[in-house]
Amino acid sequence: MTAGTRCMLMRGGTSRGAYFLAEDVPTDPAERDEFLLRVMGTPDPRQIDGLGGATTVTSKVAIVSPSRQDDVDVDYHFFQVGVAEPTISDRQNCGNILAGVGPFAVERGLVSAGAERTEVRIRMVNTGGLVTAEFATPGGRVDYDGDTTLAGVPQSAAPITLRFADLEGSVTGALLPTGQLRDEIDGLTVTLIDNGMPAVIVAADELGLTGHESHAELAADEALLNRIDSLRIKAGELMGMGDVTALSVPKTAIVAPPAGDGMISVRSFIPRQPHQAIGVFGAISVVTGVLLDGAVGHELAAAMPSGGGLIAVEHPSGVLQVDVRVDDSADTPRVLSGGAVSTARKIFDGTVFPGPGQRLP
């Protein structure tokens, strides 16, 4: 039998993933990628032979290690693992899986827990960005129980506050990769933005949608999915990312006026399939764009505070609160701050036995 590897399965935000210490996975990139595919049971649309849950939001991996950077506690390397296809990418961050990194670091002894609360300074290896995670550790142990709810998660949990730094141009090197607030692709007016996650923002009515469609309705519209895929591939070229056909970024976000008490309604895609909720970084990037006067979606937002603040983003499962503040008074807009409140829960801690798998092409 293949030797087992220590692993913790956690729900982070509205995603679920396998968390590893870097010392427990292969150091060679090719061997590491094959190992992660085997752990998840990829390629297989059911992922029946691994930990994956047959969706992109449950086929994710975090690799965590002590950081060598001053004033940083741990490094977090995120991997999006394919489901039916043997693909793996670290070209983007994941703010949902990020929510579990601080607690994982405490659980593994990389960071000492405070008597009541703990702050963990995290470097996101994928982009070099920094984030501080703060959460409750009464008695020096991570508290996963609480009354904070996340739309798309059936149970409440203890809040984890994420405060980000230096998200602008996380992948492309610029907040507005084309230098413009609006671009034209396939006859559609879009805003291309990168504040933690490269994103393509398009108004729902340009696609003949209301922007309030359910996840099932979007997933069943094959013509729409094909159009979304074409749009994001061409957007990736414009954003200087090259051929993104096999990548999970940029994300596409369809925006519309809110249907309820939120400030903007968003339907996001990762990369071709609709998201059942919305990712933290995706929400931050979209809100950043919507805050900019002249960008797609700016005129659709309701009661949006000038310059930003706490913004309620409606998505198919409910509402996500993000805190984004921008200054667009100058010719070049800049982001002042970004943050979000999330939750995480440890599901199991033990040993995973990777299957035989298949080699990467």
Automatic annotation (TrEMBL):
This one is known as FldA protein
Single GO MF annotation: isomerase activity
Q: Which organism is it from?
A: Enemella evansiae
The major lineage groups are: Bacteria, Bacillati, Actinomycetota, Actinomycetes, Propionibacteriales
Per UniProt, the keywords (alphabetical) are: Isomerase
Q: Which family does it belong to?
A: Belongs to the PrpF family.
